[in-house]
Amino acid sequence: MNYPKIGIYAGAGTSHSWLWFVDLFEKAGFYDLHFLDEFSVQNNDINTLDALIVSGGDTFAVAQSLGKKGGDNIRAFVEKGGIYIGSCAGAYLPMNSSKHPLDLFNFVDVKITNLSKSFPEATVKTCKFCTAYGCDYVFHPVREAVSLKTTSFFDKGKTFEFRAPLYGGPGMKARDPSWVLAVYEGFTPKTSFLTTLKIARQTLISQGAVLKIPFKSGVFYLLGPHLEHPKFNQANQFIIDAIYRETCKNQNHVDLEKKPCKQQLPAKKAKELLLTI
After folding, report:
1. Which pLDDT score is estimated for 248?
2. Separation between Cα atoms, residue 265 and residue 199, nearest integer Å
3. Residues 75, 97, 176, CA angle at the centre, nearest 5°?
4. What is the pTM of this model?
5. Domains along the chain?
6. With 168 labelled, which of 13, 69, 188, 260 sits at a CA distance of 20 to 30 A?
7. In whole angstroms, what is the distance from residue 13 CA to residue 63 CA?
8. pLDDT reported for residue 116
9. Strands of the 136-139 sheet, one edge to the other
10. Quick one: DSSP state of residue 205?
11. What is the DSSP letter of 46?
12. SS3 state at 121
């Protein structure tokens, strides 16, 4: 049985959230995990991976540590068929930017909605609310659990809602609407507001929360909220299903609607375990 070979970036700039991915993959039975630092990426140790995971943290610090060589290697990895999954800071990283060192990672035509030229009104004073971004500000209107809703581009037959926590991740506006798999649908009793409800709604509601962006032979998955958080099994399943399907396509080149790839991955464990624990 061939398991997906997954690299998890745990180098400079990352937060503890990369550990959530470790827990998630172990629960799903994906044990072929490789832990990377900036030097591993720069040395192109990612070349043999099926999937590269970049978790939350400080996007500027991650970009600075990886540098141009790291960025070039990530681009080549995805172009050749690799799966990139970026959560929070990892989602910001490949977006177009003119600000150095983020300009070393201009891979996808996605804009963030939580960007303002003026300092937004804050209702809670916290150092996690806002950060300078050139002449603008990246701000975080809410934290904790929010409600997400899938789009018809995820499943033409039906949509469903699920929850995931937001800890500084972006609202996203994609050039191609078909890239949007889930949007921010609403807030929950657990949502903590750092700004006014009006600003939070304008910034997030109906904006992209989960994106899938084709990139030559590979794909970028950008996750605004932390779908990997251990207390959100349905969000966890979203990630496992993405790796399952993308790895099947890369390994067998089958039509997944007619011939599911069950012989390569631990299908039952990956597809059923998370939602039953």
Report:
1. 84
2. 44
3. 75
4. 0.90
5. 6-276 (3.40.50.880)
6. 69
7. 8
8. 83
9. 115-116, 136-139, 130-133
10. B
11. G
12. coil
Cα radius of gyration rounded to whole Å, the chain: 18
**The token pair that represents 60 in the structure block:** 């500027």
Kindly report the number of other CB atoms within 10 A of residue 87's CB atom. 29
CA distances from 75 to 39, 69, 81, 83, 142 (A): 16, 10, 10, 11, 32
Q: Is 60 exceeded by the pLDDT of residue 256? A: no
Q: Quick one: how far is CA 230 from the chain centroid? A: 15
CA atoms of 215 and 238, how far apart (whole Å): 20
Chain-centroid distance, C-alpha 89? 8
Tens of pLDDT along 37-83?
A: 999 999 999 999 999 999 999 999 999 999 999 999 999 999 999 99
Sign for the CA dihedral angle at 247, 78, 228, 212 comes to negative
Which of 63, 59, 57 shows the shortest CA–CA distance to 14?
57
pLDDT reported for residue 2: 72
Contact indicator for 29, 57 with CB cutoff of 8 Å: no
Total residues found in the chain within this entry: 277
Q: How far apart are CA 229 and CA 6, in angstroms?
A: 18
From residue 86, how far is each of 2, 57, 203, 247 by CA, in Å?
24, 11, 20, 17
